[in-house]
Write a structure and sequence with these properties.
6-stranded antiparallel β-sheet; 26 strands; binds 6-O-phosphono-alpha-D-glucopyranose
């Protein structure tokens, strides 16, 4: 989390830095700041608690001129959100400014040592320790900024992407990365740096992704140099971005979240394009690694948040179609569980951003233990995409709303295709079934489009439920994870407590909560558990609870029982999570809007979680 952006060129950098921060706000929005070296070689730094617009407002009457600068939008880890804890942090003598995304694990030891040497600190952040350390090394050793950054990197333990400027060399910026992402954009007249490509794309499509332990030296008018901590030059691999500016704008919608919900007919079309042909699935990642998939004795799916929910659906899909045992783990738990991983295991890492720190760390463990690691990511060129042996991109385009919507349906769609591709390879599923599911996959964009027509009805329905303090979401089989995801969507953007539960487990506890005040959303498409879930609805009704049921069109049995029904098109059972997610996303969105919540930037959250 946290977003960093920087510029070295010949134009005033402030407008670019501010625009870049807005693009990166999805990564955190507790506070923001800029530091720019002016023509008198002074570093002017401005920082404000709150969103980037507060910073902009506070900078209206300030000197923000200068052609080299860095900026930051924060998601607090060490130290509360405040002006003083906001980045950039300055060294004690004010000659060096630094922005940082990540965490310095050994900051308190380093801080104590620096205090003993006479340093004083203003903030309670780990980042200030890093900038003070760099100044201390530069001044004590009488070395260059670059040498001081290299030495500091040897001393710090943790994760970081940093950008550093020094007013004694006012045409140069030093950047470095370890475990947190950093992209460098190269244009004819300027060099840009950012946590991802979104602040860079409108200036250039030529980018370099810095690798771990690499340092970039950006000097005005000179080509980019990249070296590693030991001073060895690294090759510079310039890649071409495939991102467009229009993908990063709201396109007439009130919120990114709504835009992204409505984009799903298109994004699912993009996910499946060229992959489902003539009743068969072709995924290059599977084609190129047939042996690994054939010999796999077990699959472990890892992810966090929504991606973990997609993984739970992936388990059903892969077990059903490929008959390989699958376990699904939170990456954060898995990495510390002394996991048993064998060389004939496949680890599938599911991640929208491709940058989630826990997922990345779990991948490294899996690789060390000899597993074949497969990525299901959205962001092209992201760390997870690069750290995995192979994988399948979900291709849903940039997701900016903090609550994941189109990435979730893209992940589920790709996991469906992956399960089919492995099933085809292992011949564990017959051609007729594969053909029927392929046909269903091809129809998904149209069915999602039809489901989106429910928007007005759901908007009206949402008015009834803004009073609720709690919600229960129930589902079974393929749609138990849909219930978890529906509950997560509601709680993260509306701050209404919501719990997802397997419907049959309700009687072992949550049933005690049911009363007139607790709405229960039941996901009940006509699948092989339909009769069972009808009983669960009856159990809720018998206790005076109110039921909102997501059903297939024409389901009169449930319509007669439930207080409200939302009718979605029928699709093969394994595809139903994609369809039922649409009304659950809309319900959460409209309830949150009615409650006056900021759906694109819910409190305390960030989209890309690059810290543990
Ligand atoms: C954060 C986001 C979620 C996301 C999760 C995992 O919590 O708010 O939307 O599901 O991180 O992120 P990833 O990028 O790995 O899918």
């Amino acid at each position: 989390m946290c977003g960093i952006v920087g510029y070295v060129g010949s134009n005033n950098c402030y407008p670019m830095l501010i625009k870049g921060l807005h693009r990166l706000e999805y990564r955190g929005y507790d506070s923001a700041g800029v530091a720019i070296i002016d023509k008198n070689n002074r570093i002017n730094a401005y920082k404000s608690k709150g969103k980037v617009e507060t910073l902009e407002h506070n900078c209206e009457d300030k000197n923000v001129e200068g052609t080299i600068g860095i900026a930051h939008t924060r998601w607090a880890t060490h130290g509360e959100p405040s002006d003083v804890n906001a980045h950039p942090h300055l060294s004690e003598d004010g000659t060096i400014a630094l922005v940082h995304n990540g965490t310095i694990e050994n900051y308190s030891l380093l801080k104590e040592a620096l205090i003993e040497q006479g340093c004083s600190f203003k903030s309670s952040t780990d980042t200030e320790v890093l900038v003070q350390l760099i100044q201390y090394i530069r001044d004590t050793n009488g070395c260059t900024l670059l040498a001081a950054v290299q030495e500091a990197m040897n001393q710090v333990v943790g994760a970081y992407a940093i950008a550093v400027i020094d007013n004694q060399i006012s045409d140069t910026m030093i950047v470095a990365r370890k475990s947190s992402p950093l992209v460098i954009g190269i244009a004819d007249d300027a060099t840009y740096i950012a946590s991802d490509a979104s602040p860079i794309v409108e200036y250039t499509n030529r980018v370099v992704y810095l690798n771990d332990d690499e340092i970039g030296i950006i000097t005005r008018g000179e080509p980019l140099k990249v070296i590693n901590v030991d001073n060895t030059p690294s090759p510079i691999d310039i890649q071409t971005l495939k991102l467009s500016v229009s993908q990063l704008e709201k396109g007439g919608y009130d919120h990114f979240m709504l835009k992204e919900i409505f984009e799903q007919p298109m994004t699912i079309g993009d996910s499946i394009r060229g992959r489902v042909v003539d009743g068969q699935v072709t995924l290059s990642g599977v084609q190129e690694n047939k042996e690994a998939f054939r010999k796999a004795r077990r699959i472990i799916i890892i992810g966090c948040g929504t991606s973990w929910h997609a993984g739970l659906i992936g388990r059903h899909l892969i077990q059903d179609m490929a008959r390989i045992p699958v376990q699904v783990e939170y990456a954060s738990e898995f990495r510390y569980s002394n996991p048993i991983i064998n060389s004939d295991d496949i680890v599938i890492a599911v991640s929208q951003s491709g940058e989630t720190a826990d997922t990345l760390a779990a991948i490294q463990i899996a690789r060390e233990k000899g597993a074949f690691v497969y990525g299901v990511c959205n962001v092209i060129g992201s760390s997870i995409a690069r750290e995995t042996h192979s994988g399948t991109y979900i291709h849903v385009g940039p997701e900016i709303g903090v609550a994941s919507t189109k990435a979730f349906t893209g992940q589920v769609t790709v996991l469906t295709m992956l399960a089919l591709a492995i099933g085809q390879l292992k011949q564990t599923v017959d051609n007729e079934t594969i053909g029927a599911i392929c046909e269903g996959i091809k129809q998904l964009p149209a069915f999602i489009g039809e489901t989106l027509k429910l928007n007005d009805k759901i908007e009206k329905l949402s008015r009834i439920f803004t009073y609720a303090h709690n919600f229960l979401y129930l589902g079974r089989g393929y749609n138990y994870p849909s219930a978890l995801e529906g509950a997560l969507k509601l709680k993260e953007i509306s701050y209404i407590h919501a719990e997802g539960y397997p419907a049959a487990e309700m009687k072992h506890g949550p049933i005690a909560l049911i009363d007139r005040e607790l709405p229960t959303v039941v996901i009940a498409p006509k699948d092989n558990l339909h009769e069972k879930i009808i009983s669960n609805i009856q159990q809720v009704k018998a206790r005076g609870g109110s039921v909102i049921a997501v059903v297939n069109k024409g389901d009169e049995t449930i319509a007669a029982l439930a207080d409200h029904t939302i009718e979605v098109p029928s699709v093969p059972e394994c595809l139903s999570p994609v369809i039922v997610s649409i009304p659950l996303q809309l319900l959460a969105y409209h309830i949150a809007i009615k409650k006056g919540c900021d759906v694109d930037m819910p409190r305390n959250l960030a989209k890309s979680v690059t810290v543990e």
